[in-house]
Amino acid sequence: MLQRRFEKVVLNNYPDALDARDTSIKYLGLLQNNHDIDIAKMLMATSLCSDDINIPSTSFFNVVLGPFFLGGLGGLPYSGITGLTAFAHHIPDNGTAFIFYGPHIGVTLENEVGKMYRPRQENAGACCGALMLALERLKDDTYSPEIKTIDYQQSYLESVLFPRREEIVNDKSPQRKITECAFELIDEMLHEYLRVVKSEFKVDKIGLLGGIVINTDFGIDDYFSVRNFEIIRTRYL
Ligand SMILES: [Zn+2]
Fold first, then answer.
1. CA nearest 77: which of 102, 54, 98?
2. How many helices and strands in the chain, by DSSP H and E?
3. How does pLDDT run along the chain (237 residues), one tens digit per residue?
4. In angstroms, what is the span from residue 122 Cα to ligand 1's centroid?
């Protein structure tokens, strides 16, 4: 079966990855049973890449309200503290905030990472396109990042990855490494923004689930490799 063949490739690269269904069952279960959170009053925000292939990824959690889109190219939370504040104001009374975040990476049955076959396309293409483009540019010794208004998200993404250029391009899998670096950036930015706007959240708990979304072929479940699962008590932020 195709799903099984994909699972082999996914686990080869991300041994702890779970498919979409198992991810949602596991983490919604933990929120509900271990953290006493009423899922019916939980509003989700996402910080995922704009890529259309990520739309099914948000259906991991299609039983919850939302999502409020915080993210842009590469998954960085470009909507900033204004976006996070708006999200905070939209949460149901006596409800909970939940943020699902991270970069994404495609895989193919030929065991390629950073690529995928998109719906009705003959050839595999880059995935995440933004991160793989950034990687190409980081490999060029003459490249130096410059933030451009007409290409704000991509140029910003490249500028924040630039300080980690050496470790990325010299890694045995630069595609996986740049994706991990993107995760760390998204995670840091979200925690920083949450500290700045904590008083806007009139809730006790903010659930965070962050990691790497692994895209397979269209119609086959995506996978998720968790890097952070955390319940923030807003009073301790
Ligand atoms: Zn992308």
1. 102
2. 8, 9
3. 888 899 999 999 999 999 988 999 999 999 999 999 999 999 999 999 999 988 877 766 778 899 999 999 999 999 999 999 999 999 999 999 999 999 999 999 999 999 999 988 999 999 999 999 999 999 999 999 999 999 999 999 999 999 999 999 999 999 999 999 999 999 999 999 999 999 999 999 999 999 999 999 878 889 999 999 999 998 877
4. 19
Task: State which residues have CB under 5 angstroms from ligand 1, the bound ion.
Answer: 49, 51, 128, 130
Report which secondary-structure segment, H or E, holds 226.
Answer: strand 223-233
Distance (Å, whole) CA 175 – CA 171: 9
pTM score, whole prediction: 0.96
Q: Which of 48, 54, 45, 52 lies closest to 71, judged by CA?
A: 48
